[in-house]
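The protein record passed on below.

***
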Amino acid sequence: MDMMLEFMEQISQAEQIAIGGHIRPDGDCIGSCLALQQYLKKKYPKKIVDVYLEKPSSIFSYLKGFDEINTTVSEKNYDLFLALDSSSVDRLEFSEPIFHRTKKTLCIDHHISNTYYADKTLVFPEASSTSEVVYEMLLLQEKQEGKTEEEWIAWIGSEIAAAFYTGLIHDTGVFKYSNTSPRTLEIAAQLIKTGIPFTQIIDQSFYEKTYIQTQIMGRCLLESIRVMNGKVIFSALSQEIMKFYGASSEDLDGIIDQLRIIKGVEVAILLHEVKTQEYKVSMRSNHTVDVQRVAVYFGGGGHKKAAGCTMQGSVYDVINNLTGLLEEQME
């Protein structure tokens, strides 16, 4: 709690603030960045608060501030850089140059694999999402100033609440993952009080699929392969397949979760070729296997039941390396 207040003190003192998140930003990354930006702009109208993210998916275009996101690196200098939802400096990738030339750097995260690369780091692994961590940090500051949670919620309004809610639903799988806590649901209930169109937010940003997304998901399911007595299932997408469908990485959302819910599966793996024989690896675990341990071994990170990394080699080289470590946890 003291660390949260210390972060808020440094934020309040900075006049020019840059906010950045991880490469290929997901709902939690985008939601937490925009929620924090919009809160700071509302509370401190004179501050300059800019968000830098790799071009985010248009499914999040309903969020206030979405059109203001910087997708190219500027030469502006800032007093403070806030790194959100990024466990290592290389994960910032797009905004890393700004991070390195900023006077003070703070990191807010919920990944236990965080490498503590900023000047000061706030990590709450027990939180469902970085959006939840940011919510609690801002709320604590408001309580110090005499507001109740209900009063603060009424003050932030539906636009900031929508950003927080987006972050919560995307990192909890709409509250079905094991990282969902009673507090997560309490926060969601508070956010709903602002009148956000929560059903529409869930459908538009989480469930709705384009025809291309449905086609490529169908191909992944059709060509999936089970190994280790059916406990592990994987599917791989080559650059050629992606080009055939005219698909991008954002079209792969939801595929890994469809693989994970197949009966008897303990670990689901999705491989996406980004360069010749270089694969982005996504892993999901259902029960006891800690996929984060495997991801960290190969230079990645994440959570116990959801993690990823980048690996080189053929599809079978990658799978053999992954299953070798997964098998140790299944014995």
In short: Residues 12 and 232 are 48 Å apart (CA to CA). The longest strand covers residues 267-275.
